[in-house]
Amino acid sequence: MMHEDKINQIGKNIRTNLELVNQRIVEAAEKAGRDPDEVKLIAVTKMMPVDVINAAIEVGIRRFGENYAEQAAEKIDFVGKGVDIEWHMIGHIQSRKAETVSRYFDMVHSLDRMKIARFLDRYAKEQNRVMPVLIEVNVSGEASKYGWDASDESSWPKLADQFRQICAYQNIEVRGLMTMPPMFNDPQDSRPIYRKLQRLQHFLKKKVSESDWDELSIGTSFDYPVAVEEGATMVRIGTDIFGSRPVV
Ligand SMILES: *Cc1c(COP(=O)(O)O)cnc(C)c1O
């Protein structure tokens, strides 16, 4: 049971939103014949203050996603690294922030280039740990997106060679793939992108046996029901849980 007295108004709003999100995840999973428990919710708290994160913890959220290493580190210092709380790095990582990322985060979804693999491996080694990572790919080929360009399927064997090199690092552990679709008006437009990602996943499962490639981090507030139908094991949801972000 939750301690009702400790849950403030922010927490109550979060709880109401969370119930709806969880319900939509369950419906989407059932529609696709999947077990809803296969889908982990990452609550995205970028730009959100520590009060909001603490309220989310009070209502039972345990996995948080952040985009900016420095801001996240400050918040994590405030909130404390509770034993059962996970911090997921989902934003582009500048190489000079790689050490902070490896110190503060439990998982990286946004491994988007070789240099960051090398850096994360080095720092994780110094810290005597293994960092679980997802490789970020750009399936649509849209120029503004980060990650390995996976838009042209004929390039996949070359991608597989590069990903094998990443798997060879001792202090990072490749768990799967992450992608961000382009900005669409209709969430259904994300579906072909996610289907292509699943095809890439199957290709990698066959060609790069060093990882099981089981995790797919796809889906935001905009399109997570579609992502769940198309195999998401992690959805990254901010706005639908916390409301719109403060504008800076
Ligand atoms: C901000 C962000 C999200 C969450 O977006 P919402 O629309 O607020 O749900 C998910 N993934 C990434 C990479 C993000 O930067």
Overall outline? globular
CATH architecture title: Alpha-Beta Barrel
> What Rg, in angstroms, do the CA atoms define?
18 Å
Q: Report the CATH C-level class.
A: Alpha Beta
Helix content range: 40-55%
The third-level CATH topology is TIM Barrel
Structural class: alpha/beta
Structural domain count: 1
- Overall pLDDT confidence: 95
Count of DSSP strands = 9
Tell me what portion of residues adopts beta-strand conformation: 15-25%
| Cα end-to-end separation | 37 Å
Bound small molecules, by name, code or SMILES, are: pyridoxal-5'-phosphate
Number of H- or I-type helical stretches: 9
Q: Return residue spans where pLDDT drops below 50 for at least 5 consecutive residues.
A: none
SSE string, helix = H, strand = E? Answer: HEHEHEHEHEEHEHEHEH
Strand count, sense and barrel status of the largest sheet are: 9 strands, parallel
CATH-wise, what's the superfamily? Alanine racemase
What does this 3D model show about the protein?
- This protein is about 40% helix and about 15% strand.
- Strands 1, 2, 3, 4, 5, 6, 7, 8 and 9 form a 9-stranded parallel sheet that branches.
- Strand 4, helix 5 (about 115-125) and strand 5 (about 130-140) form a beta-alpha-beta unit.
- The chain has a single domain, classed as TIM Barrel, CATH 3.20.20.
- The protein has about 250 residues and is of the alpha/beta class.
- The model has no long low-confidence stretch (mean pLDDT about 95).
- It is globular, with a radius of gyration of 18 Å.
- The chain is built from 9 helices and 9 strands.
- The structure holds pyridoxal-5'-phosphate (PLP).
- Pyridoxal-5'-phosphate (PLP) binds near residues 90, 180 and 236.
